Amino acid sequence: xxxxxxxxxxxxxxxxxxxxxxxxxxxxxxxxxxxxxxxxxxxxxxxxxxxxxxxxxxxxxxxxxxxxxxxxxxxxxxxxxxxxxxxxxxxxxxxxxxxxxxxxxxxxxxxxxxxxxxxxxxxxxxxxxxxxxxxxxxxxxxxxxxxxxxxxxxxxxxxxxxxxxxxxxxxxxxxxxxxxxxxxxxxxxxxxxxxxxxxxxxxxxxxxxxxxxxxxxxxxxxxxxxxxxxxxxxxxxxxxxxxxxxxxxxxxxxxxxxxxxxxxxxxxxxxxxxxxxxxxxxxxxxxxxxxxxxxxxxxxxxxxxxxxxxxxxxxxxxxxxxxxxxxxxxxxxxxxxxxxxxxxxxxxxxxxxxxxxxxxxxxxxxxxxxxxxxxxxxxxxxxxxxxxxxxxxxxxxxxxxxxx
Length: 404
Hints:
Number of helices: 12
Number of strands: 14
Order of helices and strands: EEEEEHEHEHHEHEHEHEHEHEHHEH
Structural class: alpha/beta
Helix content: 25-40%
Strand order of the largest sheet: 12-11-10-13-14
Shape: globular
C-alpha cells in the first residue's frame, strides 16, 4: 500500500520538477553549476527537507538525467515541500539499477531481496516444461579464459530457458585471438558487436572491470582470477536464505582457501549487508583470509574470528562453507599447495557436531575436502546450491536485459 512523505521539489520558471518518489529513498537535486540547472535522480534512502533548497541525493546519474547539456537559469531555483505518494522501490517495468555485475559491493540488501524474488519466479519458469520466450531474440556471449563447468553451463542454460541464444568460447585463453596477443579491450569491442550481453571469466583480477569500462552492453563477471565471483555470492546468499530461513543473526564458517578463493571474498562482502552476522575463518596458514576483507568486515561492524579448530567452529555455525585448495593459484610453489591441502576436511565427524538445522555449502568443484559419505546427509546443500545458481542467473539476465 502506498504511503506519503514530504519531498523537497524544485520549481523552475513556474514548472514543478518532481522525480518519482521511492518508498525507501527519493530525492531531487537542485544545483547551480556555472549558470546551468541539472536534475539527477537515484532511488536510495534519504530524507528531504524544504529547508534545504540546493541539496540532494541521487548519486547514480546513470539512473536518471533530467537533461543533457545546459539550461540557462532566468530565475532562481525555488524549492518547496510537496506531499508525494511513494511507489515501490522496484516497480514493474522499470530499469535495473545496475548496468553491469562486477563485484558484490554493488548490491544493497533491498536489491538482493528483490533479485531473490525474481529468482523465485525464474524457478517457476524452469519447472514449466514449455519454458519461456522472455529473452527471445537476445544473444549472450560466454567468454571464458579459465575452465568452468557450473558457471558457464548455468549461464547458458539460464539464457536458453528464457528463450535466448548463446555464443560461447570455452577456453578463450588458448582458442581465441588472445592467443595471438589481442588485448582484452579489443576482444570486448569485437564481441559486443555480435551479442547483447557478455558473461566473462578471466584469470586476471580486475579484468571484468576493464571489460565493463570498454563495453557498451552489459558485462557480468563470472570470476576474475583471485578477485571476485559476484554471481556465486548471490546464489550463495540465496541458498542460505532458502536453507536456513534467514540472513540476519547467522554464523558462517568460511573454510579452506581464503586467500585466493574469490567465492568467499565475494560472499563476505554480501554477508556484511545483514545484521548480527558472525564470520569464522578456518584455513591453513598459507591461505589465510587477506586483511582487506577483515578490514571491510570490521568497518561494517561485522564480528569475525580466526580459528584453527574446524570441529569447534562447525558446532557453532549455521553454515559451514567449505572451499577447495586451488592448486592453480600456487604457480610453481607446489610445496605450499601440498602443505595446505587436506588440512581441513568435512567428514562424518564434522557432521556429527553440527547443529540439526545447519548446512554444508561448497562452490564446487570439490576434490577431497568434503568426503562422499557426507552427500547423503540432508544438511549437505552444495548440489542444491549449484541448482540455485540457475535461478539467480536467469534473474540477472532478465533484469539486465529487460529490467524489473
